[in-house]
């Protein structure tokens, strides 16, 4: 078990890490490619992590009362679809049960399941457009030869059955959403205006001051609760759609692995081509120059008047210098294939990696066991890229790298006090890193609000 907490303060050097240029590549570009973007807030004297400014309660209150227009529209416009979808699902289950004893039972259920898939696509579009929740479309039905095979495929389609379950659960949520978006505001208006309504309907009766006060207070209390209820129902609709209308967990995992495999194959091909180019243009040229120098040395040994010692010494010095340069270049090219620092495990490799960062990095390690070799390599290259991004893009003054191995999981966390605003986006270094972690069943989580601090966590299994 290794437990170190030392702050590395190097004097200079680029943030390439021990892996050199062959480490996991960082896609340079906009500041958003790194771990941080946006203006810096500065940091505290001790940890370098910026303290939150005042007004946190005010910001939280604003977020509570800020309900998107799409959420109101979904609650209102989604009611007809919710009622229609729920009625469709109930009718399918009821009629399918009654017709199951007849010849018409199976054809009816097959057609109903195909219709359920269409309704699922309609609800996915509504959730994406109004609630901003992108739900990935499930895979299409596999093509089967023959009517019976086609019917069997539809009857065993998990996507259609899950869509029916969604339509059933969407019915009460749709009714509650409409009540929250329309019924509650109308009720609040009636309660707040109750003193006026009472005087208009019964102008001769004495006013009940306590009843008027209770009515107004109750109306205001309900009005304050409307945004929270609407936001909670919107969140429930997002989760329900993502869970039941998207691909099944196995299908989603297959797609993730396919995407990660394509990314790894492309990256491996790029590395091989880059290594081939470097060997051809660099190392091979140096070896050719060395061979020419040795040929000239041989010529200097066989003149008619005897060896030319001065020229021979010059040629030998040149050959020795060329040999040293070739060995150094070969060592640089092979360093990224398997970093020598990993021979002693992450406990030795990660502190050495942080020592090359121009940003002071505090290292915290809790390694109770040694992970698989491929996992160690993935963690090492992940740490190298994250520290590189911190140095290039964040504007951070300090950073913390923590790694632990517990309960069969490896967790790597890099935290800095920079500008914040990092996100997983298409074409960024973080997106490519997340794809590579997916290939070893790992995940990457980014927590980087504007102004910082940024905390990026990679979670991987200790064994493949």
Automatic annotation (TrEMBL):
Reaction(s) the record says it catalyses: ATP + protein L-histidine = ADP + protein N-phospho-L-histidine
Regions of compositional bias (Low complexity) in chain numbering: 19-39
InterPro entries for the chain: HATPase_C_sf, HATPase_dom, Put_sensor_dom, Sensor_HK_TwoCompSys, Sig_transdc_His_kin_sub3_dim/P
Source taxon at top rank: Bacteria
Parts of the chain that traverse the membrane: 72-91, 97-116, 171-197, 209-230
Region (Disordered), start-end ranges: 1-54
Keyword Phosphoprotein on entry: yes
Record keyword Cytoplasm present: no
SMART domains membership: HATPase_c
A UniProt-annotated Pfam family: Sensor
One annotated GO molecular function: kinase activity
Keywords: ATP-binding, Kinase, Membrane, Nucleotide-binding, Phosphoprotein, Transferase, Transmembrane, Transmembrane helix, Two-component regulatory system
EC numbers: 2.7.13.3
Domain Histidine kinase/HSP90-like ATPase: 374-464
UniProt xrefs under PANTHER family: NITRATE/NITRITE SENSOR PROTEIN NARX-RELATED, NITRATE_NITRITE SENSOR PROTEIN NARQ
Protein name per the record: histidine kinase
The species this protein was found in: Streptomyces wedmorensis
């Amino acid at each position: 078990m290794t437990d170190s907490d030392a702050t590395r303060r190097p004097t200079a050097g680029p943030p390439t890490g021990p892996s050199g240029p062959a480490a996991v590549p960082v896609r340079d570009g906009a500041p958003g490619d790194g771990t941080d973007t946006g203006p810096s807030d500065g940091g505290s004297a001790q940890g370098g992590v910026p303290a939150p400014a005042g007004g946190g309660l005010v910001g939280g209150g604003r977020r509570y009362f800020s309900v998107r227009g799409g959420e109101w529209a979904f609650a209102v416009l989604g009611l007809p679809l919710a009622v229609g979808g729920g009625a469709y699902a109930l009718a399918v289950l009821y009629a399918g049960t009654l017709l199951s004893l007849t010849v018409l039972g199976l054809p009816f259920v097959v057609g109903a399941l195909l219709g359920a898939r269409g309704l699922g696509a309609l609800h996915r579009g509504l959730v994406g457009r109004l609630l901003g929740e992108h739900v990935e479309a499930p895979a299409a039905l596999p093509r089967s030869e023959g009517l019976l095979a086609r019917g069997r495929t539809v009857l065993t389609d998990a996507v259609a059955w899950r869509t029916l379950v969604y339509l059933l659960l969407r019915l009460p949520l749709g009714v509650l959403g409409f009540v929250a978006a329309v019924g509650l505001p109308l009720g609040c208006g009636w309660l707040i205006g109750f003193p006026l309504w009472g005087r208009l309907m019964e102008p001769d009766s004495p006013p009940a001051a306590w009843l008027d006060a209770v009515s107004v207070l109750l109306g205001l209390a309900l009005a304050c609760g409307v945004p929270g209820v609407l936001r909670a129902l919107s969140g429930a609709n997002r989760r329900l759609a993502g869970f039941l209308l998207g691909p099944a967990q196995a299908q989603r995992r297959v797609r993730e692995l396919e995407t990660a495999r394509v990314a790894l194959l492309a990256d491996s091909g790029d590395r091989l081509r880059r290594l081939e180019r470097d060997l051809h243009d660099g190392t091979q040229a140096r070896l050719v120059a060395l061979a020419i120098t040795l040929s000239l040395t041989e010529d200097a040994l066989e003149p008619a008047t005897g060896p030319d010692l001065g020229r021979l010494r010059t040629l030998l010095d040149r050959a020795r210098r060329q040999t040293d340069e070739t060995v150094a270049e070969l060592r640089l090219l092979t360093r990224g294939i398997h970093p020598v620092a990993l021979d002693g495990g992450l406990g030795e490799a990660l502190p050495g990696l942080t020592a090359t960062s121009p940003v002071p990095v505090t290292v915290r390690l809790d390694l109770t066991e040694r992970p698989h070799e491929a996992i160690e390599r993935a963690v090492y290259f992940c740490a190298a890229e994250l520290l590189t991004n911190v140095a290039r893009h964040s504007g951070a003054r300090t950073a913390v790298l923590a790694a632990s191995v517990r309960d069969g999981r490896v967790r790597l966390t890099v935290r800095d006090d920079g500008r914040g605003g990092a996100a997983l986006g298409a074409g960024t270094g973080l997106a490519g890193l997340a794809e590579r972690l997916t290939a070893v069943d790992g995940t990457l989580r980014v927590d980087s609000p504007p102004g910082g601090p940024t905390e990026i966590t990679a979670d991987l299994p200790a064994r493949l």
